[in-house]
Design goal:
By secondary structure, the protein is an alpha+beta fold. The protein is built from 6 helices and 5 strands, in the order ααββααααβββ. The radius of gyration is 13 Å and the shape is globular.
C-alpha cells in the first residue's frame, strides 16, 4: 500500500489506494480526483480539483459527471471508455493527454481513467502542469 505522502499520479498501486483512502487523504494529493458511481454521479471530489477547477464540493457532489459537472469529458475518449470497460467486465487504467475546456480557457492535462469490475467507484484523475 502506498503512503498518502508518496501517492503519485503514475503509481501502479494508485487504484488500490483510491478504494481505501479517506476524503482527507484524497485532499492531500497534488492532483485532482473525481470519484463517481456506476450511474455517473460524483461521490468523491478532492480539494486540489475543487481549487483548480473553481468548483466547490457542494456544487459537484451528487451531480452527474458527464452531463452536468464535466460535459467536456462526455465523449469517446473518456466517458465511453468507462462504459466499454463496464460492459465488458474489464478493468480500466489508462493515462491520456487531454484538453479541458469547460468554464475556463483550454487547459492541457493528463487524465488517468481508473475503474475495476464490480467496484463501487470509478475515478477520473487530473494532473495539471506544475
Amino acid at each position: 500500500m502506498i503512503e498518502t505522502q508518496t501517492a503519485a499520479f503514475q503509481d501502479a498501486e494508485l487504484a488500490a489506494f483510491l478504494s481505501q483512502a479517506s476524503d482527507a487523504a484524497l485532499d492531500e494529493l497534488d492532483f485532482g480526483v473525481i470519484g463517481f458511481d456506476a450511474t455517473g454521479v460524483v461521490r468523491r471530489y478532492n480539494a486540489f480539483e475543487s481549487k483548480a477547477a473553481g468548483l466547490s464540493r457542494d456544487r459537484v457532489l451528487g451531480n452527474p459527471l458527464f452531463t452536468l459537472v464535466a460535459p467536456c469529458m462526455n465523449n469517446f475518449m473518456v466517458a465511453q471508455r468507462f462504459e466499454d470497460a463496464a460492459a465488458g467486465g474489464a478493468p480500466l487504467d489508462a493515462i491520456i493527454d487531454y484538453v479541458l475546456t469547460l468554464r475556463m480557457r483550454p487547459v492541457k492535462v493528463k487524465l488517468r481513467l481508473v475503474a475495476a469490475p464490480g467496484a463501487a467507484m470509478r475515478y477520473v484523475l487530473i494532473q495539471r502542469a506544475l
